[in-house]
Structures are given as C-alpha cells and as structure tokens.
Amino acid sequence: MAQSIYDFTVADIKKNPVSLAAYKGKVLLIVNTATHCGFTPQYEGLEMLYKRYREQGFEVLDFPCNQFGHQTPEVESEIASFCQLHYAVSFPQFAKIEVNGEGASPLYVWLKQQKGGTFGSAIKWNFTKFLVDRNGHVVARYSPTTKPEKIEKDIEKLLKSQ
User: Fold this and answer.
1) Which of 16, 35, 40, 162 would bridge 134 by S-S if both were Cys, CB 3.0 to 4.6 A apart?
2) Residue 10: pLDDT band by 50, 70, 90 thresholds?
C-alpha cells in the first residue's frame, strides 16, 4: 500500500511515465480537470497560483478527466493546446484518467482514501482539488466549487511550515 504520493508513477500529457517522486519536497495541488465544464475558468486561478508560488516549491498537477458529462472529449494533444491557447497553462499536465469506478487511477484511489470528502470518497465532479504537503501527505480536499484563490492561504501555510 502506498505511503505517500511519491509511490505513484503516472503518464504525462504525452503519455510518458513520470514518477511522482520527482516532486519530493514540493507542495502539490492535484486537480482533475475538464476543458468544457462550468468550472474550466478555474484554470486561470490555478495558473496564477502556480506562477506566484512555483519558485517557493509549489506545483499544480493537472489530470484531465472525461467522466463527468463527457466534458473533456479531446485527446491529450488537443487538451494541451486548448489549455495553452485559452489559459496559458504552464504547470504540468498529465494523460487523461478516470477518477472513479473500476478504471480509476491508482493515484486517485489513494487520494480518496486519504481524504474522503464531505460526501464520501467518490469524486463528485471536475475540479476537485487535493493539497499535498512537502512530505507527500494529503492535507486537504476541496470541492469543485472552491476557487483556486480560496486555497492560497493554505498553500502559503504549507510553503512556510516546512
């Protein structure tokens, strides 16, 4: 059983394997995203946080997901182009995943075990966010309606505390 986020390997947006151990010592915000969702404009807030705090050891990890209303129908290259064109996204993006059900990414199975959320462990919609400390432990889960700007104080606290 995984002890921390660093025990996982995922595929990046070009489908190359990436060990999350590469992010050891960083504060992470892990988000399941969609390109055609009412919450898609949150990409702007995510990018703002990334630019503001990346030099202090903060990363946003973007996991596109098409499980909710089929709001990410594109292939990975199209997702990356969309995000770059509309939101100038510069944080790491990963291959499209499932977050619930039998096909759920092992990373998301683990994240949900760590922080079940208000309505149980299932991810309810796109833009659910998990905040991970520098030691690879999940410290908070935020609903899709929580705008990235509302998480800023929690990010600052983690960046300063370790």
Assistant:
1) 162
2) very high
Q: What is the pLDDT of residues 73-110, one digit of tens each?
A: 898 999 999 999 999 999 999 999 999 999 999 999 99
37 is annotated as an active-site residue: yes
Catalytic residue among 5, 20, 28, 37: 37
Quick one: pLDDT at residue 1? 65
* Ordered DSSP codes for the chain: ---SGGG-EEEBTTS-EEEGGGGTTSEEEEEEE-SSSTTTTHHHHHHHHHHHHGGGTEEEEEEEB-TTTT---S-HHHHHHHHHHHH---S-BB--B--SSTT--HHHHHHHHH---TT-SS--STT-EEEE-TTS-EEEEE-TTS-GGGGHHHHHHHHHH-
Domains of the chain: 5-161 (3.40.30.10)
pTM of the model: 0.94
